[in-house]
Amino acid sequence: MVRIANFHGATLVRSSSLATLATALAFAFPAAAQDRSTTATPEATDRAVDSRVEEPGTEIVITGSRINTAGFGAPTPTTVVGVAELRQAGSTDIGAALADLPQFRQTQGSQQTNTTTTSGQAPADLRGLGIARTLVLINNRRHISSNDLQTVPYTMVRRVDVVTGGASAAYGSGAVAGVVNIILDDRFEGFKLGAQTGISSRDDRAQYLLEGSMGLSFADGRGHVVIGADYLEDEGIAPASARPLVGDAGFFPGEDGRLYPTLGIRESNRSEGGLINSGVLAGQTFNADGSLSPFRYGIRRPGAPTSMIGGDGFTTNKYRSVSAPISRLNGFARASFDVADNLTFWVEGSYNRVSDSRFYWPDLGVGQITLSATNPFLSQSIRDRLAAAGEPSFVMGRALSDMALARYDYDREAVQGTIGLDGSFGGGRWRYNAYYAHGEQKQDQFLRNITLRTNFANAIDAVRAPNGSIVCRVALTDPTTPCRPLNLFGSGNADPAAIAYATADWNSVINTWLDNAGASISGEPLSFWGRPVSVAAGVEYREEAYENLFDENALARRFSMINGTNIPKTGNSVTEAFAEVNIPVLADLPAIRELNLNGAVRVSDYSTSGAIWSWKIGGIWDIVDGLKLRATRSRDIRAASLTELFSQRAAIFGPVNDLGRPGNPSTQVILYQGGNPDLRPEIADTLTFGVVISPRALPGLNLSVDYYDIKIRDVITTLTAQQIVNGCYLQSNQGACSQITRDGNGAISSINASFINIADFRNNGVDFEASYRTRLDAIGLGGQLSVRALVNYVDKLIVDNGVVAIDGAGYLGSQAVFLVPRWRGLVSATYESSSIGADIRTRYVGGGGFAPASVLPNQAPDLHVDSRIYVDLGLRGYVGLGGDQRITIYGNVQNLFDRAPELGAASPYHDFVGRYFTFGVRASF
What we know:
By secondary structure, the protein is mainly beta. Among the domains are: about 255-325 and about 360-410 and about 465-500, no CATH class; about 640-675 and about 720-755, no CATH class. It is built from 13 helices and 46 strands.
């Protein structure tokens, strides 16, 4: 721990006790204004939680390593984000706030709608290397909700420390791209209440946030209690067709056959009333009364057999959301008591619930339907035309929006409790701590009103009964059948009883458990050069388990769109030991003001894969006052997730071209998919080095430049059957060859397409940061001005799965996960005084391509995504109530100039909401 006190703008650093939380081996986290946090002094980033100017003598505590590292003295680059910065532009979501930092890719946001099983989650993705490779901690400890930033009690957040380098030796598995460490304000005293609302300039995506917290001491200050909660209601944006640049755009062949981004893409073979696609009536669509009219086709071209621009075709954008609605409730409570001067017991608990209910889109399992030409729901004239043409049946493309419009409902609930103790001995020279945590999460998900395959087929096979009524054909042989005939000729004609028979609700319940315990000790046993040698060591134990249960229909595979197989409760465990040392090697010499080396090592013994080592070595060379060099080299790991290890194995049949036999014959093989309990941990080698400059001639200015290079091998992924065959015989990849089994005749009999260790990643680039902070008394304004700039340049982001290597650097589309712009930047300026505050932010996203040709082939020449600059404004007024009590009234405008996203890009880096207004009030007393 490093304590930093601000006296009239001067930053003084003095050593204090080491951090006592024991979930991780510390890696010399930067204190305050250091590393890439160097440019963000703790006063600027933390700003006493409510953005006030620091008063003389205010003390800010930055928690990090168990090894004391003062000022700029950490070798691992770290960015510190304070509450004021998290709340700029009215953000209510930590994930969205961090996604503005150039080191992050918003691979998935809580309001994105491209998936069902993760909707409502907001994971962090450092460097665009995938959310599984960024470790998220709360108060230095793992949490049951893992990487989901939506589960953090937002009202209690004090700051976020972002470590943009490998940190597995410090915190264990998953810290390959870095760590997001969320520090809660668990020593707060007083009361805070807040309310906020927001609306876009298009009068949608209304948001409502309520938050409150309280903290108090008792027993003459020996005890302390803090409680906080927040509630968010976000109405989202629906339907997507209301935002055509986002929901109605895509790629379509031009007259030259090349792909161009365009609006108005529709399906050319399906309509909501029913489009006949075969025979004499092809090109006719059913009206609401069951009659036919010509279907209006839009622009159609070769290369897009089922799509067109314009026309009467169906589009899912009529129903799906651009931004999904979400309801969120977070709560946190902590109590601590000093049983002695050197021993404190504490207990804390957290609760989170996220839920949503919204339209998804019509059942994707039903599109083209074959119907009898004698179906009695057809008019007599239509039946006559089909009979005259000698057609016993016809094919109809139908979007089931009137009877099987899926509604996605989910409820995700997480609870965690932790107990622990912190103590010291030897006159405070040695510190120790221990803790135990237990967490549980339940995800209850529904897709309502989707079709049952057999029931649907029975219901659309309608006939005329002997008594003249219309019945299901199956009723002729089974009068007791519950089947009711379904009329799909024209939207809105289906009998509710037939809909109830043909549809049901799909349900999946995922339960997750986490048990985590640890203990550590740290201290300074001796000194070199008048500076302490710091050491830390400890042990940790962690168990994780999950189960996935499905409804009866899904288990029997009765649905057309999605089914499931139960996964009984299963999991794994890991036992770990770690140690760290920080040594002042040289000091007080010419050109060596101070030279410190920091080393860490961790051994992790997994029940599924055995023991593996991770380590780190780094150093800080303080050349002269105001100039430092730093470097870190680390070996990092990511163990396989429970899903990758234990998800249910499934067997399907499919064709592959056998490149291992003459003529490359096509053959049907068994393809095995699912978890793989034999997976090994991924291994990453990370190198960072940079320079930190704090010129004495300009107090308050800090600059840093850091280069990073991350190489990951044995990356866990899945391949298609053909990719595995190609990788074996075209790339000579032995990992792919080992997945292929041949029979006695030499033919491929089966292919293992489960998760395997086969891919390699390579990511390198440069981070720049600059900050300046000064008081404005000299020019008569009072208050203080803070300026901060963060810039990231990506040179390479190569994903090589053994079949094809893709460099995603310089691309902004959403056609693949690992696509990132080469340049991103964030520049902010903030003014604070005792009565007002204001800030302006400029977010820059560099231009580039949509996707590499191997991801999006046949692109038009010179296809390019333009760069974007977004401007955000904030204004606050403070009303003092005496002492520390005051009311803050604030407003924000995000995307001031309403910059639209690039047509066809659907980029996670582009703003798809547009100009957005936020207003709120907070009171502290």
